Amino acid sequence: MLGELYRPRGLALETAMAVLETEEENTYACNVAWGCSNACRYCYVPKITHQKQTGIVRLPAKPPVELVRLQLELNYRFHAVQYTNSGVFLSFCTDPFLRQLRSSTEDLIKLLLSHRIRVATLSKVGTIGVVTDHKIRHGMTIVSHENKFRNEFEPNTPSPLTRIAELKGLKENWDQYVWTSMEPYPPSAIYKQRIEDLLEELNFVDLIIFGMWNYDKRARTEQARIEYAENIQILTDFCKSNNIRLHVKSDTLKFVEKEK
Questions:
Q1: Contact in structure between 244 and 205 (CB atoms under 8 Å)
Q2: Sequence-ordered list of residues with C-beta below 8 angstroms from that of 23, at least 6 positions apart, any chain
Q3: How confident is the model at residue 114 (pLDDT cuts 50, 70, 90)?
Q4: 33, 32, 27: which is closest to 11 by C-alpha?
Q5: Taking the CA of residue 172 as centre, how many other CA atoms within 13 Å lie in the half-sphere pointing to its CB?
Q6: Residues near 182 by Cβ (< 8 Å), separated by ≥ 6?
Q7: What does each C-alpha distance from 168 to 4, 105, 206, 207 come to in angstroms?
Q8: Is 163 within a domain?
Q9: How far does CA 35 lie from the centroid of its chain?
Q10: Which of 4, 130, 138, 147 has CA 20 to 30 A from 190's CA?
Q11: Is the pLDDT confidence value at 51 over 70?
Q12: CA 145 from centre of chain
């Protein structure tokens, strides 16, 4: 599965469908590697890849572009795919634009686009100079605009304002579709901030994905539930005012609504 197209499941499928605007049967993902050197403290990848040591990036046996090309051209499971209605999300188990992955990711994106397959990416390290001459859905994880948060939780990444500036440049200079993953968003028990201050920086994006902080009991308290409910309302009003699509993750909605 590493380096190949696969059908995501659960919350990963939900995210991919929301970003790509595809139906379930036409929604795919590809992990161009397993593991990441961004060293985000909230990362779920070490848990799902059973890595005891963070920062290790495991590459597929062959470049993903070769593996996916074989799938698209030779594998009977993909012969019936209506490419123009399909999309691929890059990627759930690594940052596809890490320095050692950028060239490989770009080759894969060009292959997918040549088959008229929609592509979405999610990164923290940036995409300037990568396939900006093609239409892809560039995403950046931004759950705080403060360097204090970045220094504590995302130590190996560019500053949040740098990420925001890059997304804005992609939108204004290259007319790209840009989106923000505000997931996992911390409750005040983990990191105190005003969501309004972050949203002021994001009034240009096409889509916001919002989800709660996971793997921490401090994000499961009654106070956290109240805060998430308030933030969702703020987000809803903000997105309506700025003509931005909003998708709140189902597990977050379930948590917020459990007492209703």
A1: yes
A2: 17, 85
A3: confident
A4: 27
A5: 8
A6: 142, 143, 198, 208, 209, 210, 211, 235
A7: 31, 22, 11, 13
A8: yes
A9: 15
A10: 138
A11: no
A12: 17
**74: in domain:** yes
Q: What share of the chain is helix, strand, coil (3-state, %, to 5)?
A: 40, 15, 45
pLDDT of residue 44: 75
Q: Closest by alpha carbon to 82, among 117, 120, 58, 107?
A: 117
- Same domain for 117 and 172, yes or no, is no
- Band (73; pLDDT cuts 50, 70, 90): confident
Instruction: For residue 63, give Cα distances in angstroms to 49, 108, 117, 165.
Output: 20, 9, 19, 31
Question: In this structure, are 136 and 259 located in the same domain?
Answer: no
Omega cis (within 30) before 184: yes
Task: Assess whether pLDDT exceeds 60 at residue 53.
Answer: no
Mapped onto helix, strand or coil, the DSSP state of residue 233 is helix
**Exposed, middle or buried by CB within 10 Å (0-12, 13-18, 19+), for 181?**
buried
Choose the final residue of a domain: 78, 111, 141. Answer: 141
pLDDT the model gives residue 17: 98
pLDDT at 233 over 60: yes
Residue 115's pLDDT is 86
Amino acid identity at 86? S
| Residue 46: predicted pLDDT | 64
